[in-house]
Amino acid sequence: MWKKETKIVANDFSRFFIDVTVEDEVSWRLTGFYGEPKWDKKSDSWVQLRDLHGRMSRPWLVLGDFNEILYNSEKEGGVPRPQRYIQAFHDALSDCGLADMGYEGDRFTWQRGRVRERLDRGVANGSRNQLFPSSRLINAEMTKSDHRPIVVDTEGVDVPHVGERKKQFEACWLSEATVNEIVRTAWERANLPGAGPTLVQKTCQVHEELHTWDREVLKAPVRRLKKLKKELEKVRRSPMTDENLARQKELLLNIELLLEQQEIH
């Protein structure tokens, strides 16, 4: 949406949706949707969805928190969802010609205590699927929120692995207060052998020490954060035992503390 060649035209909005037209190489419709959470008003969501369907005929993607599940397998824990609510959601999607996109990642997109459900999804019509046949939806990591962010990749192409990136001088090092001391110490250490090493050899040694400092000091919190998030994702996908729920809280606290430290830095 930030690309100059992509134009976003706002069609309409309400407390249930933001409806836009995306004009790029092709033109298609995107609706960000939020379903009614109250049981006695859930039908209002499907009235809105059917109304949106009747306004415009073009490739259409609806994305968001529908506050409803399509199958009993999309809910774990808590009170079972009455079948009439699930069927009402099915009927609304069918009437609008929309079908679930599927997903990559964990099945559940929302969790609170021992209850987890797939409330967030993307649904699209046939012409939209023909327009982007390789698109995919990813249920991404969640940390502070009780919902997973859902990400739609319209091209669905993985970035190829191009091997190890060549080591270069990082401009961000210059903002570090200790960089001058690191360079001075590394240069003095490179000079210790006396007249043997050439200027190029000394420079390469300083360069290697800078990257070691970058990896072991500057990027250590980033690696720690990545490790914590990976463990959190693993625990979230495990059975909701007392031990796992307690570990989730511990990991979330550690992640939040690490993020705060990075902001202060």
Describe this structure in words.
The longest helix is centred in the last third of the chain and has 23 residues. About 2% of the residues have low confidence. The protein has three domains: 147 residues, Endonuclease/exonuclease/phosphatase (Deoxyribonuclease I, Chain A, 4-Layer Sandwich); 48 residues, no CATH class; 45 residues. A hairpin with a 3-residue loop joins strand 1 and strand 2. It is elongated. Helix 1 packs parallel to helix 2, helix 4 crosses helix 5 and helix 6 runs antiparallel to helix 7. The strands form three sheets. A six-stranded mixed sheet has the order 1-2-3-4-10-6. A three-stranded antiparallel sheet has the order 5-9-8, with no helix packed on it. A three-stranded mixed sheet has the order 7-11-12, with no helix packed on it. The protein has seven helices and twelve strands. The protein is α+β, with helices and mostly antiparallel strands.
